[in-house]
Please model this.
Amino acid sequence: MQLPHRMLANVMSLCLCAPLLAACGPTYDTDDPDYAYFAGLFDAARKAEQVADMERLNGGDWKTACIFGGYVHPIEEMEKLGATVAETDRQRMQDAKDSGFRLFEVEEFEMMVAYIDQANRAHFIHFEGGIGSDGQHYQSCVTRPETRITLDGSATTG
Model:
């Protein structure tokens, strides 16, 4: 089957641009000291329910901690909890949203851990991988003394 000239040009353009689009995207926080723990937890949660012990987050220096899945607006949610958000984080989230073909700061299969420190500032750790399709629209938060989040949306006292 022969493709019309215009359609062939569009297909070729897409093929040439695909590697560039794959390179476009948010910068994930792989250097964060808590990244490996949560990335492993999210990976395990694809297979079975997991409990995230938020106690270790930021060396224990937090008062509210949250896990967000795809299609959630973490900045808005943290502001609803009374946190202040730095302009650099606002810009970083906007850049993530604007990169590639994205509608949200946290896309379909990504996750984000966010916490509020003792100075009432929000902090965000963006993860490339998440818990699969169950992570879409997922959000759960705990406030001390609670420290545990079950990755089915319920929080338990730790």
